[in-house]
TrEMBL record:
Domain named HTH marR-type: residues: 28-164
Family matches, as CDD domains: HTH_ARSR
PANTHER family tied to this protein: TRANSCRIPTIONAL REGULATOR, MARR FAMILY (PTHR33164), TRANSCRIPTIONAL REGULATORY PROTEIN (PTHR33164:SF102)
Record-level GO BP terms: response to stress
Native organism: Paracoccus homiensis
The entry's keywords: DNA-binding, Transcription, Transcription regulation
MF GO annotations: DNA binding; DNA-binding transcription factor activity
The protein's name: DNA-binding transcriptional regulator, MarR family
Entries under SMART domains matching the protein: HTH_MARR (SM00347)
Gene3D superfamilies xref list: Winged helix-like DNA-binding domain superfamily/Winged helix DNA-binding domain
Length: 174
């Protein structure tokens, strides 16, 4: 009836979920696991780089917050929407980063409840370290041909479509 769907033999007589799983569904499940593993590996790469440099005062998540903050001045909410952080983690980590001198903050003139944050010179140094790390990785991947088949631009476009779909699902729920 549906040629693109293969039938899976149920392991139990009352198999409630997944009697039919399409190849695309399996690929989607693989992609979800791969995204999670790649994120953890990226955190490990950042951690290893900073340990190699003797910079053990920052967690990998804090380093990525500094990297994603960049040279902009933003609110915590804007920073959360840019990166992969939970709301409470952003607030906690921003407080730590301010205390350690990597981020400066000030209340917004327009809305006193809102706090604007930006990198200090020390924060900019950390961002540069991460930028150089990612550049080395990009060059190595480009030289190896890994980014060519399929072209990374197509992979990124597909990931943006999935991101948009997920965002729409979240908006639909609320």
């Amino acid at each position: 009836m549906f040629p693109h769907i293969k039938q899976i033999e149920p392991t139990r007589q009352d198999a409630p979920i997944g009697d039919y799983i399409s190849d695309k569904t399996e690929a989607y499940f693989d992609a979800l696991q791969l995204l999670e593993r790649m994120h953890r590996l990226m955190l490990d790469l950042v951690k290893d780089e900073f340990e190699r440099l003797g910079r053990n005062d920052l967690t990998p998540v804090q380093v990525l917050i500094l990297y994603n903050l960049g040279e902009a001045e933003v609110s915590a909410g804007e920073l959360r929407s840019r990166g992969m952080y939970q709301g409470s983690n952003v607030s906690y980590n921003l407080k730590k980063l301010v205390t350690m001198g990597y981020v400066s903050h000030e209340r917004s003139d327009m809305d006193r409840r809102s706090v604007r944050v930006k990198l200090t010179d020390e924060g900019l140094e950390v961002r540069e370290i991460v930028q150089q790390l990612f550049l080395r990785h990009a060059e190595g991947l480009a030289m190896s041909g890994v980014l060519d088949d399929p072209p990374l631009e197509q992979v990124n476009m597909q990931n943006r479509r999935i991101e948009r779909f997920w965002s729409e699902q979240i908006r639909y729920i609320y």
